[in-house]
């Protein structure tokens, strides 16, 4: 039976190698596989079935079809395939057929060079021989799967061994498919088509997953930022002074990684606060001179948020992340609205407290004045009573020296006694006045005591709420 030496995609029957179009040395290198037709005229090699044609003794000019048929595929994009095989002949056969189908190929003679090329060029598909010198195909695939540049590249094993154990070993190291020689060209191209579609779907799913993950991260981040703002709103109810308001606001903005300056205007006074501890004169001028009618005043990475009683300068807005930038600008009006409301509440409380103190002071003064008035009235009554008694005594003594008739003297003394008695009766009404003054004084004392208790209870409740909120900070669970 005649022998056939494969050369490229054309062979001629011959008894010697002299019919090969290349020199014998070149032919020995390139034409590595010797094939023979079987009894039915089918030519076979270690690569698989090549062609079936009649008796080769008569058809000296007949050509053998290539191992992989030249066939148009549905893959319109340029697909890069890396062939890792120590057999140069197999490399050329597969490369030319894939090139005819519109695929781009690159070859490697051993596992180490194949890994290096895969890392550098990152092909779309790797065809990997199992039995190679040095590291075998299983070790190559295992290393490819451990490298971040190549871990997602589909790998197809090409092997003449197809037992279940060998297939399982291939899948265990991360192969995507396993083709056993001999195989049809259409079969290989179909597998490549399937793997490319699978890779495209996996890539699309990965992109969707990343988008969904990014959306979830944005949603979680936004929810966390909103939770921080709500926590500040809850705590702001317990703040009892401007220092606590500023510190609470800065605690929230620090969690947002922001540096801020706060201006509070209350009772015609300006109160300055900074999350960094110091405020430059330029920052004060920027806040004082900006347009208060505008809610936001943006310049570069800085933003000023204005409210009637408060203005906040943010010195490092995240311009590199516009989604976060927008979320923060949505949250700042909520935070500053709570600050502005609390400032008004504290100002009202301060005014009411001041008014209460003034009222207590007035009540105390009235109470003291009434006490002194009642005391003066009582002293004057006693003094007047004594004066009248002295007057009666003096008149009686003088009338004895005036030489009046007895009836005249009695008449005058009677008139004087009647007048003195009436005056004494009028002065005795001072006791009633004293009792009235005592009642008024007692009532004022009760009002003052109750008012002082009310003010003290209010101050104590404010301090207690502030302490409780501070103690509860560690137990707050932000969603």
Automatic annotation (TrEMBL):
<keyword id="KW-0902">Two-component regulatory system</keyword>
<protein>
    <submittedName>
        <fullName>Response regulator mprA</fullName>
    </submittedName>
</protein>
<dbReference type="InterPro" id="IPR011006">
    <property type="entry name" value="CheY-like_superfamily"/>
</dbReference>
<dbReference type="Pfam" id="PF00072">
    <property type="entry name" value="Response_reg"/>
</dbReference>
<keyword id="KW-0597">Phosphoprotein</keyword>
<dbReference type="GO" id="GO:0000976">
    <property type="term" value="F:transcription cis-regulatory region binding"/>
</dbReference>
<feature type="domain" description="Response regulatory">
    <location>
        <begin position="80"/>
        <end position="196"/>
    </location>
</feature>
<keyword id="KW-0804">Transcription</keyword>
<feature type="modified residue" description="4-aspartylphosphate">
    <location>
        <position position="129"/>
    </location>
</feature>
<dbReference type="GO" id="GO:0005829">
    <property type="term" value="C:cytosol"/>
</dbReference>
<keyword id="KW-0805">Transcription regulation</keyword>
<dbReference type="InterPro" id="IPR039420">
    <property type="entry name" value="WalR-like"/>
</dbReference>
<dbReference type="InterPro" id="IPR001789">
    <property type="entry name" value="Sig_transdc_resp-reg_receiver"/>
</dbReference>
<dbReference type="GO" id="GO:0006355">
    <property type="term" value="P:regulation of DNA-templated transcription"/>
</dbReference>
<keyword id="KW-0238">DNA-binding</keyword>
<dbReference type="GO" id="GO:0000156">
    <property type="term" value="F:phosphorelay response regulator activity"/>
</dbReference>
<dbReference type="GO" id="GO:0032993">
    <property type="term" value="C:protein-DNA complex"/>
</dbReference>
